[in-house]
Amino acid sequence: MEKQTAIGALAALAQETRLDVFRLLVQAGHEGLPAGSVGEALGLPSATLSFHLKELKSAGLICCERAGRSRIYSPDFDMVNDLLAFLSRNCCQGFGHREKGE
User: Fold this and answer.
1) How far, rounded to the nearest angstrom, does the alpha carbon of residue 22 sit from its chain's CA centroid?
2) Which among 27, 38, 23, 24 is positioned nearest to 72, based on CA atoms?
3) Would residue 97 count as lying in a domain?
4) Is residue 93 part of a domain?
5) Euclidean distance between CA atoms 8 and 60, whole angstroms
6) Reduced to 3 states, what is the DSSP secondary structure of residue 96?
7) Which segments in the chain show pLDDT lower than 70?
8) What is the pLDDT of residue 91?
9) Does residue 98 belong to any structural domain of this protein?
């Protein structure tokens, strides 16, 4: 993963409502949720929800598929795994590693 991609994803998650939306979609798993269900669960008006879904989608963190008249949103778990791998690369190789309480 490129550094700029990681920065974009982290920036998208660094907002309370988007983080709530993303966490709800992660809980829903690969099947995802219709936009209306996300808005209802979080008490978000549709215009607000659309804005935040667009930001998460632009950052590559979520996917959208049409199912009839609904749009189903789900996490892009490949992207999430790439982001976690990027963040944890070179982790715990002795540099600055300390046990709790030290």
Assistant:
1) 4
2) 38
3) no
4) no
5) 9
6) coil
7) 93-102
8) 78
9) no
